[in-house]
Design brief:
The chain is α/β, with parallel strands linked by helices and about 400 residues long. The chain is built from 19 helices and 14 strands. Helix 6 links the parallel strand 3 and strand 4. The N terminus is likely disordered.
Length: about 400
């Protein structure tokens, strides 16, 4: 994509984005449509939701309702009439702008229930998933689309994915300068327009100060009191701010896992900026040289790998673990009936530690994987294996044989 630096961050995706295959997400969407009458696909702005749906569904123009388009809003003045016979599969985009539509969908589904009847797209909203689960209980499958996975763009683009993040237009920009400019516009638009559209009412300047400060705490245990002091607001306010960014799917609060052991364990979540490209612009990082010199470089790489792991293996039971004595584990996941721990290290010479052995025993892990920056895979100890990030994130079955 030849991306101009003045491109509108929320404009339509281009043909170049559509050239990037997203087979895992396409398969998940197809599977959801095959089993449920309504599929709800959520995610941050500009992650490629519309492009993915166009590729999978290929809807006719008359069966697409974009709720940011006043003409489609006018068509929905009588939603039951407009939607009842609009097409084999009806696509409703930006559904967070009309949450009352879910009640009409329920009636229509109950009139003629069949798989794949509606595909509903929505950018993050505090009410969107709650309303859909209440109004469409037993009728909806919910999916979340993040940015590009490493498997979508290829292992040779790992450094670009790390620097630019996974938002398609940022990743596909003609150069790093254009990518940085696009992300700057994205952040400004998100703060000045999108948050209000999601129902959040915070001054853009306050949220920018908070989000920037949060970037400096990226990957650390939540400490609301310290952040509140640093930006001179109340602790209650920073709690509301972090929850808003979490609901908007641009920040992740990774919960702490509590094991039934005698050790004192950390209970507060760890906080991450989910897209590493946005993290870098909040930190003033615009080039690989900037990144290599920045004190948050290691935390940035670990956060990028963590988000990629969650995109690949799922996040329904994701947690980290930490004790006040210093033992910790970056990520605990339940995968195919096994409990797998992941420790993420930006090194080409991974080794075991006392902390890893503590996590293996205290959390009763089936296996612990040390994710590292080199390409090789080898056994470190009984039930502890070092696997390179590219193999873990790209190969077909990286956990086989553990």
């Amino acid at each position: 994509m030849l991306l101009g630096v003045d491109r509108e961050p929320n404009s339509e995706t281009t043909a170049d984005e559509a050239l990037v295959e997203r087979p895992t997400d396409a398969h998940a969407l197809q599977a959801a449509m095959a089993r449920s009458p309504v599929t709800l696909l959520t995610g941050p702005r500009q992650t490629g939701k519309s492009t993915l749906v166009r590729r999978v569904v290929n809807p006719s123009p008359s069966s697409v309702f974009d709720l940011e388009d006043y003409r489609d809003l006018a068509r929905l003045a009588e939603p039951m009439l407009a939607l009842r016979d609009a097409g084999e599969t009806i696509v409703i985009d930006e559904a967070q702008r009309m949450p009352e539509l879910f009640k009409s969908l329920r009636v229509l589904v109950d009139e003629a229930r069949r798989p794949g009847r509606f595909v509903v797209l929505g950018s993050a909203s505090p009410d969107l998933t709650g309303l859909s689960s209440e109004s469409l209980a037993g009728r909806v499958t919910m999916l979340e689309l993040s940015g590009f996975r490493l498997g979508d763009v290829g292992a040779d683009r790992l450094d670009d994915l790390w620097l630019r993040g996974g938002l398609p237009e940022s990743f596909l920009a003609v150069d790093d300068q254009a990518s940085s400019a696009w992300r700057d516009d994205y952040i400004a638009t998100f703060l000045e327009r999108d948050l209000a559209g999601f129902g959040f009412r915070f001054p853009a300047t306050t949220m920018r100060r908070f989000w920037t400060m949060l970037a400096h705490y990226h990957g650390q245990t939540w400490n609301g009191a310290a952040i509140a002091r640093s930006i001179d607001v109340s602790e209650a306010m920073v709690r509301r701010l972090v929850d808003a960014l979490t609901d908007a799917l641009v920040v992740r609060q990774l919960p702490a896992w509590f094991a039934n052991i005698s050790k004192r364990q950390v209970k507060a979540p760890r906080v991450h900026v989910r897209d590493c490209g946005l993290l870098h612009r909040l930190l003033g990082i615009g080039s690989r040289l900037d990144l290599d010199r920045h004190p948050k470089m290691g935390a940035s790489w670990e956060g990028m790998v963590l988000e990629q792991l969650l995109a690949r293996f799922g996040n329904s039971a994701a947690a980290f673990w930490s004790t006040h004595g210093g033992a910790e584990l970056d990520l605990r996941l339940e995968i195919d009936g096994q409990v797998i721990g992941f420790e993420i290290k930006r090194t080409d010479r991974p080794s075991t530690s006392k902390s890893m052995h503590s996590a293996l025993a205290d959390l009763e892990l089936d296996h612990l994987v040390v994710v590292h920056a080199a390409a090789h895979r080898f056994t470190l100890a009984d039930r502890i294996t070092a696997i390179g990030a590219t193999e873990l994130l790209v190969s077909d079955d990286p956990l086989s044989g553990l």
